[in-house]
From TrEMBL:
GO biological process: lipid transport
UniProt topology in membrane: Multi-pass membrane protein
Residue runs in coiled coils: 178-205
Domain ABC transporter: 550-715, 1144-1378
Species lineage: Eukaryota, Metazoa, Chordata, Tunicata, Ascidiacea
Protein name: Multidrug resistance-associated protein 1
Spans through the membrane: 22-45, 57-74, 94-114, 226-250, 270-294, 346-368, 374-392, 452-479, 491-516, 956-980, 1050-1071
Length: 1382
């Protein structure tokens, strides 16, 4: 229609011209131009529909511009009609114009809606309205109003969140980033070689993308360049928007200048109203452009976080052992949380690096127009401030590096402590380790305190800078020439330009500091991502030439490129379908051999080929075995899976799964074992000594060689072997079930890989009979302890972290203020009040100065006085800022100290039930992200809230003082403002809570992945776990992204309120023309121009504080967890020599793990004399470990009591009790630090005593061989010691304590029989007069016990001497028979 009408106008004009009628050229050119543009618009409409584009921003802007420009033509046409005397041609043009204008209006209105989706596009559930929003809805973020309303009516929950748009999903972002980063690494590794086929391979896989190819030259790839290539184009769009916003910023001062001139001359009133409307329209346009700019920046930051988290997770999958030593779990978690957050924060204001100087140049240019060369004085002040800011930035950089190191160290230690918290409690070491954490935290707080004071000085310079610039400029201007008069126009237009200068002057140092922080994070991240990776070609997985599925030829392996080889000159070949046992003493390299075959070690030389592997091992052995069997692989590697099960279960597992009659009999099996009873049934035995293969052969062959292995067997297993062999000659007619309860489907490690397992269900294999019937298992004591008593399906072990709903409790804010100190809070508020009073006073003083009467010669009197008072008020303002900043810095560090210390103590004193039901990642998140918020973010929010709050108040006071009539609209505007921000805060607060809740699973999943990365690689489940990581990250971003949009939604609407204030202030200035002077007009409007930003910042700071103070709420939650009994109870402390005898009495004792669970120990009544050696046995799940936990009061009594030497242990403090008991746990727990610290964390013993303990624990020779001796650095988790060596360290701890009561909880399950015998001999010798509890799966270790306690289902089944129990032929007899001892 529009196209036809334009051609009608053109045709009419041509016809008139042809007939000699006078026609204006504009009547010919305009229809032609409009017709062409309409044709182009029609083409784009058709093209967009063809491509499935449902809304067009280009067309919407086109119709808006058409509407605005034709509004002037509309006015002209109306005047023509009013004037009359129209020709026929003019009437026709008017008619076609009105019809065309109506069509343009219709097109503009239709741009508010979007076309229906294409029919071929699939419908998605929970799709974000953003995907179907119109261009105008995008500009005003109106599509988000639905969630704002939903959040206002009811607290938001997970199901209310929308799915991410495809461009924001972590999978797509990670693939793009990894492809770019890999290309960058490839380019720098070989400068003369372009990215070749290896890089092309990165495009197709998620795993290989991070595996570097060996043999290339080392270089320094730039992570910054990779990020620019991935995120630069979209961020450049934001930069363009920033240019437009900056230009619009300088329009308002020019309009203010025109408005001040209007009030002092005789211009018509309509000009004043037009200027007021232009001020309003300019402000609206600037608001829209600025909020779109911020949206782009925050979105880029969010995407960058996705890339960082994804890249770190993928890198952790392939990191070499040497690189892993340099990056602890705590450090890597900080990369994913703190460092990624810094990149996000920087993106918001990074453009200030160029935008700040650009604004400064423009401001100085316009100032020159009003004040001339005097602005050079102000420029000089700015140049003088640069070195000060540079010094502050450099010092901040140094502090930042130091603080991050301390933070990493603290999180690393906390991670280790939480992983070993049960052992720490049993040793009564928790307070010692709490002090270690506190010592690191104190150093961190010292750095934080210094940084806070440095920031206070920075705040002083930032506030002083704009004032000093304006003061210097005004002073030079008025004092350089007596004819220089500071008029209202010059004063307040200059002041508005100085206010524009304030932002770049304030933000540039802050951005520099943020860049410094981000550069530290960039360096840390680059170092991690560029770290050495495992060589994917170390193990050849193609079929071997001779048919062997495992072949190792003269191979040497090391755990690190700079470390000594662990395995040397290994030669090994394993035929298909054979069962090979790997044996050797502790530390000979058995587990290392398994790792080498998996490709987890660095291959120095040699050849390794493994056709297809599956790994079984770890603490949940039976689950691991079942999982391995289910995979149907060619080669199975079993890393001592029978060590943590009793003899009965171990025998059944071997008979039915691993052995020659088991379901894997046709598979190739490599079994690392310390048990010799199974060796006669294996096809081949590999003996390792000192990292080398000592002997290889069948059981009988090795006996005939009469070597060291034969001697070992004769000494430790002669009787055991004969009995076992005799039994094996008779195949069991009905083998007992391996598992006695259905395999639980909620094992977390299996859930993460469920998709891979489901895919493999379609396989068929020779081991199908393994999967027939019900796969059952008997649970361990720990399973019974924690899970087995939960009968209700909805009674989950791990509690779900839930989000609080509703308003942030006042008690949370008061708690933080109380931690800061009420006196300090009052001082801060008073200082800000005085600061703003000085600021308002200086502005009013300037207004009065600008209207001082002129002398006949054109000069003013009292200039020096005016200038001096103005300067004094400004300095007062700066000093108040300095005082408030120092007070806030001091108070915030005090609050951080108290809140962290309180939570730390409560966590260390929490019962084990808390740790059993709380994922460690959730706790670590409290100590990392939430403490970071309390340390750095919340103080900044408080400062911003107070500053903007007082500034808004002072602005309203000034405007009402200038134009009292403005008070009429203040109340309605404030009501509108209140409702807008209340709508927002309810939604924003809940979104922040949901984001916090969904963040913890990311870190928990990462920690679990790191712990089992070898198993994940062995099963080939990298992609599955990476997908899980992406899902968890997307879930978190689904809460974070709405938070971004909610801020923009709010800012745009608040700025609309602020722009209305500008409009009314300008209109009232026009209305009051002649009644108020131009100085008052300048004062009123210049302040109103600031209110837009201030109102926005006020609500943002209030909401940011309210959402971030959730961290205080979360820390307070963990500062009020249920506590164990007191460590020391005054008045009920045992004597210092207690226990003298070590007698123990259980009197009708029962216990459970938590309220609501069944009893695990039931009505036990036994008396154990001092010095007795008691063995505790029972089928798995009988309650053996539960009794030891009860003795240490890890779990408390449900009924009855336990007495030691006649004193009820329930009446004494836990420190007094546990410090008098010793335990050698099944899982040896070591901590990063010196060997001395691991033996004696309290530093209670002399070196001679430490060496004596090491000698008796058979570690002296090893420690003596170390260069650092007792100061030898133990890595995280004791990974640089073998499992057996870690167990011997635990023995040394017990020897040092010399307790009268010793508990051995399956302490020798992970060591070879020779080491086991050494440990038992040491215990018999050194603890001869002690009461000893021994829980053992190897019954031969307790056959010399005084008495044996047999438990069954938590009750005492048998309790007598071993001989009597064997004669009774009860439960103990059957267990001994299974073990070949009866």
């Amino acid at each position: 229609m529009l196209w036809i009408l334009t051609w009608v106008d053109l045709g009419r004009g041509i016809w008139e011209w042809y007939n000699g009628t006078a026609v204006l050229y504009v009547d010919l050119v305009t229809p032609l131009i409009v017709g062409v543009t309409m044709a182009i618009a029609a083409f784009f409409i058709y093209y967009d529909r063809l491509k499935g584009v449902r809304t067009s921003g280009l067309l919407t802007i086109y119709w808006i511009l058409f509407l605005l420009t034709w509004a002037l033509v509309f006015r002209t046409k109306v005047e023509q009609i009013q004037n009359g005397g129209l020709t026929t041609g003019e009437v026709m043009r008017i008619v076609t114009f009105f019809i065309s204008y109506a069509c343009v209006i219709a097109h503009f209105l239709m741009s508010f809606f979007v076309d229906l989706p294409p029919a071929y596009e699939p419908q998605k559930l929970n799709t974000s309205p953003q995907e179907s929003a119109s261009f105008i809805s995008h500009m005003f973020f109106e599509w988000f109003s639905k969630m704002i309303m939903l959040g206002y009516k009811n607290p938001l929950v997970d199901n209310d969140l929308w799915d991410l748009i495809p461009d924001d999903k972590s999978g797509r972002i990670s693939r793009r980033f990894n492809k770019t980063w890999s290309a960058e690494k490839a380019k720098y590794k070989n400068e003369n070689e372009e990215v070749d086929d290896d890089t092309a391979r990165f495009e197709n896989t998620d795993v290989d993308v991070l595996i570097e190819q060996p043999g290339r030259k080392k270089g320094k790839p730039s992570l910054f360049k990779a990020m620019v290539r991935v995120f630069g184009p979209y961020y450049f769009l934001g930069s363009l928007l920033k240019v437009v916003s900056d230009l619009l910023t300088f329009v308002s001062p020019q309009l203010l200048s025109a408005l001040i001139l209007f009030t002092s001359n005789n211009a018509p009133v309509w000009q004043g109203y037009m200027l007021a409307v232009l001020l309003f329209v300019t402000a609206i346009l600037q608001s829209i452009v600025l909020q779109q700019y911020f949206h782009v920046c925050f979105t880029v930051g969010m995407r960058m976080r996705s890339a960082v988290v994804g890249a770190v997770y993928r890198k952790a999958m392939v990191l070499s052992n040497s690189a892993r030593k340099e990056s602890t779990v705590g450090e890597v978690v900080n990369l994913m949380s703190v460092d990624a957050q810094r990149f996000m924060d920087l993106m918001t204001y990074l453009n200030t690096v160029w935008s700040g100087p650009f604004q400064i140049i423009l401001a100085m240019y316009f100032l020159w127009q009003y004040l001339g060369a005097a602005v050079l004085a102000g420029l000089g002040v700015m140049l003088l401030l640069i070195p000060i800011n540079a010094l502050i930035a450099r010092k901040t950089h140094q502090l930042q590096v130091r603080q991050m190191k301390l933070k990493d160290e603290r999180i690393k230690l906390m991670n280790e402590i939480l992983n070993g918290i049960k052992v720490l409690k049993m040793y009564a070491w928790e307070m010692s380790f709490k002090d270690k954490v506190k010592a690191i935290r104190d150093k961190e707080l010292d750095v934080l305190r210094t940084a806070a004071y440095l920031n206070a000085v920075g705040s002083f310079t930032w506030v002083s800078a704009p004032f000093l610039v304006s003061l210097t400029t005004f002073a030079v201007y008025v004092l350089s020439d007596s004819s220089h008069i500071l008029t209202a126009q010059k004063a307040f237009v200059s002041l508005s330009l100085f206010n524009i200068l304030r932002f770049p002057l304030v933000m540039l140092p802050a951005v520099i500091a943020a860049i410094v922080q981000a550069s530290v994070s960039m360096t840390r991240l680059s170092k991690f991502l560029a770290g050495d990776e495992l060589d994917p070609d170390a193990v050849d997985h193609s079929p071997t030439a001779h048919g062997e599925v495992v072949e190792v030829d003269n191979a040497t392996f090391t755990w690190g490129k700079k470390d000594e080889p662990i395995l040397k000159n290994i030669n090994l070949s394993v035929p298909s379908g054979s069962l090979v046992a790997v044996v050797g003493q502790v530390g000979t390299g058995k587990s290392s051999l398994i790792s080498a075959l998996l490709g987890d070690m660095d291959k120095v030389e040699g050849y390794v080929s493994v056709k297809g592997i599956n790994l079984s091992g770890g603490q949940k052995q039976r689950v691991s075995i079942a999982r391995a069997v289910y995979q149907d692989a060619d080669v199975y590697l079993f890393d001592d899976p029978l060590s943590a099960v009793d003899a009965h279960v171990g025998k059944n597992i071997f008979d039915n799964v691993l052995g020659p009659r088991g379901c894997l009999k046709n598979k190739t099996r490599l079994l690392v074992t310390h048990g010799v009873s199974f060796l006669p049934q294996v096809d081949r035995i590999v003996v390792l000594v000192g990292g080398r293969v000592s002997e290889i052969g069948h059981y009988d062959e090795l006996l005939e060689k009469n070597g060291a292995f034969a001697e070992f067997l004769r000494n430790y297993a002669n009787h055991e072997d004969s009995e076992s062999t005799d039994e094996e000659d008779v195949p069991p007619s009905s083998p007992p079930p391996i598992f006695e309860e259905e395999l639980e489907p909620d094992v977390d490690a299996d859930e993460t890989a469920s998709s891979d397992f489901k895919r493999q269900r379609t396989r068929t294999s020779s081991s199908d009979h393994c999967k027939s019937g019900k796969l059952r298992r008997r649970k361990t004591d720990r399973d019974i302890d924690i899970k087995a008593q939960q009968k209700k399906k909805d009674d989950k072990l791990i509690t779900t972290e839930t989000a609080e709903t509703g308003n942030i409790k006042l008690s949370v804010a008061l708690s933080y203020m109380r931690s800061v100190g009420y006196l300090i809070c009052s001082t801060i508020a008073l200082a800000y009040c005085l600061q703003n009073a000085a600021q308002v006073g200086s502005s009013i003083w300037l207004s009065q100065w600008s209207t001082d009467p002129l002398n006949p010669d054109g000069t003013q009197n009292g200039t020096a006085t005016r200038l001096g008072v103005y300067g004094a008020l400004g300095m007062t303002q700066a000093l108040m800022v300095l005082g408030s900043s120092f007070s806030m810095s001091y108070g915030s560090v005090v609050a951080s100290t108290l809140l962290h210390s309180k939570m730390l103590v409560r966590i260390f004193r929490a019962p084990m039930s808390f740790f059993d039901t709380t994922p460690l990642g959730r706790i670590v998140n409290r100590f990392s992200k939430d403490i970071y918020l309390i340390d750095e973010v919340i103080p900044r929010c408080f400062t911003g809230l107070l500053m903007t709050g007082f500034q808004c108040l002072s602005t309203f006071v000034v405007i009402v003082y200038s134009t009292p009539i403005f008070a009429v609209v203040v109340v309605p505007l404030l009501i509108l403002y209140y409702f807008v921000q209340r709508f927002y805060i309810r939604t924003s607060r809940q979104l922040k809570r949901l984001e916090s809740i969904s963040r913890s699973p990311i870190y928990s999943h990462f920690s679990e992945t790191i712990a089992g990365v070898s198993t994940i690689r062995a099963y080939g489940l990298q992609k599955s776990f990476m997908k899980q990581n992406e899902i968890k990250l997307d879930t978190n971003q689904m809460a974070y992204y709405p938070n971004i949009v909610s801020n923009r939604w709010l800012a745009l609407r608040l700025e609309l309120v602020g722009n209305l204030i500008v409009l009314f202030a300008a209109i009232f200035a026009v209305v009051e023309k002649g009644k108020i002077n131009d100085g008052i007009v300048g004062l009123s409007i210049s302040y109103s121009l600031q209110i837009t930003m201030m109102l926005n910042w006020l609500v943002r700071q209030a909401s940011e504080l309210e959402t971030n103070i959730v961290a205080v709420e979360r820390v307070e939650e963990y500062s009020s967890v249920v506590q164990e009994a007191e460590l020391v109870i005054d008045g009920s402390r045992p004597p210092s020599h207690w226990p003298a005898e070590g007698s123990i009495k259980f009197e009708d004792y029962s216990t459970r793990y938590r309220e609501g669970l069944d009893l695990v120990v039931k009505n036990i009544t036994i008396h154990i004399n001092g010095g007795e050696k008691v063995g505790i046995v029972g089928r798995t799940g009988a309650g053996k470990s539960s009794m030891t936990l009860a003795l240490f009061r890890i779990i408390e009594s449900a009924s009855g009591r336990i007495s030691i030497d006649g004193l009820p242990i329930s009446n004494m403090g836990l420190q007094d009790l546990r410090s008098k008991l010793s335990i050698i746990p099944q899982d040896p727990v070591l901590f990063s630090g010196s060997l001395r610290m691991n033996l004696d964390p309290f530093e209670e013993y002399r070196d001679s005593e430490l060496w004596d303990a090491l000698e008796h624990s058979h570690l002296k020779d090893y420690v003596t061989s170390l260069s650092e001796k007792l100061e030898h650095e133990v890595t995280e988790g004791g990974e640089n010691l073998s499992v057996g060596q870690r167990q011997l360290v635990c023995l040394a701890r017990a020897l040092l304590r010399k307790s009268k009561i010793l508990v051995l909880d399956e302490a020798t399950a992970a060591v070879d029989l020779e080491t086991d015998d050494l440990i038992q001999a040491t215990i018999r010798e050194q603890f001869s007069d002690c009461t000893t509890f021994t829980i053992a799966h190897r019954l031969n270790t307790i056959m010399d016990s005084t008495r044996v306690l047999v438990l069954d289902a938590g009750k005492v089944a048998e309790f007598d001497t071993p001989d009597n129990l064997l004669q009774a032929k009860g439960i103990f007899f059957s267990m001994a028979k299974d073990a070949g001892l009866a």
